[in-house]
Design goal:
By secondary structure, the protein is mostly helical. Helix content is 70%, strand content 3%.
Length: 319
């Protein structure tokens, strides 16, 4: 067969045209209509609007009194005391809770038993009862003497002269919260794989070094979220320090004010507003802290990482 007998082959343009004409018609997808969502949203908006209108027009709320005391100096001072109580008590709880968690996981049976008894007592009794106990501490121990038994006294002071209701409040809140933080830290430690501990042991680390250098840093991504919730809970639990008694916190200041003007509703709204504002700030901090310790957990790239990857590819192509 000669070249003249060979049938002509279609050129690229003809193939391209045929391929183009053979492509299927794009499907026009119609989103599924969900009228239930719009109905539910409308009902919720109507209910919220009715509540706001009713609260605005109800004279019992006394919004003028609310605006008068919202930024009162006594309320602001009480908010500062509440923050101090929260931070100091939570610092004590985290430190002691970490020690208790390590004790519960220790191979020493005495340490495990001591930690278990501590958790049993402080988790099994209400925090209000514990705070009342710390308020009565000066009545139980009028004097504290430090020294050698049947020997010289090194230090002696009168507890009733201390007037340290703030200190006892921090101790009471911190010791109670430490029992819950111990379980949170223990769960975070148990979330670390056994292979990490075996690798640390193979490198010659002791049990305490393994906990301090290997296990605890990796368990932070599990510990941080519930710890943030406990911090917010601690902020609201400070309102119970009136059991000591301590009236310089936020709720105590508001209670003193409405005990004089006999208007508890607007003062309680002021207190709730301040608690809500502080809690919102703590929630924002918790979000960024969780995101920091969660790096590397998810394989899904963020928008910033995708942009950096695209820029790197463009640089490689340019070279």
């Amino acid at each position: 067969m000669t070249s003249q007998d060979t049938p002509p082959t279609p050129d690229d343009t003809e193939l391209g045209g045929a391929a183009t004409s053979s492509q299927p018609t794009p499907i026009k997808a119609v989103p599924l209509r969900r009228p239930g969502r719009w109905i539910a949203a409308a009902i919720i908006l109507i209910l919220v609007g009715l509540f706001i209108y009713g609260a605005k027009t109800n004279p019992a709320y006394k919004w003028d009194t609310y605006g008068k005391y919202l930024f009162d100096s006594r309320i602001i001072a009480g908010a500062v005391v509440t923050l101090e109580l929260t931070v100091l008590a939570m610092a004590l709880a985290v430190s002691l809770g970490t020690v208790l968690a390590v004790m519960r996981l220790s191979p020493n049976p005495v340490l495990r038993a001591a930690a278990w008894v501590y958790l049993w007592i402080f988790r099994g009794t209400p925090v209000f009862v514990q705070l009342v106990f710390w308020g009565l501490f000066p009545s139980l121990y009028k004097q504290i003497v430090l020294g050698v038994p049947f020997g010289p006294q090194l230090l002696q002071f009168d507890v009733q002269d201390l007037q340290a209701a703030f200190v006892f409040a921090v101790i009471g809140l911190g010791l109670n919260e430490a029992a819950y933080m111990a379980e949170i830290v223990r769960a975070g430690i148990n979330s670390v794989g056994e292979g990490q501990r075996e690798a640390s042991t193979a490198l010659g680390m002791s049990w305490s070094q393994t906990m301090r250098r290997t296990v605890l840093p990796q368990s932070m991504r599990v510990i941080i979220p519930p710890t943030g919730n406990e911090l917010i809970g601690m902020l609201k639990t400070t309102s119970l320090v009136t059991a000591l008694p301590l009236s310089t916190d936020l709720f105590g200041r508001a209670r003193d004010i409405y005990g004089v003007n006999f208007q508890p509703i607007p003062l309680l709204l002021v207190t709730a507003t301040w608690y809500l504002a502080i809690t919102s700030v703590l929630m924002i901090g918790q979000f960024y802290l969780e995101r920091y310790y969660s790096r590397g957990v998810s394989r899904q790239l963020t928008g910033k990482q995708l942009q950096q990857l695209a820029d790197a590819q463009q640089i490689v192509k340019a070279k």
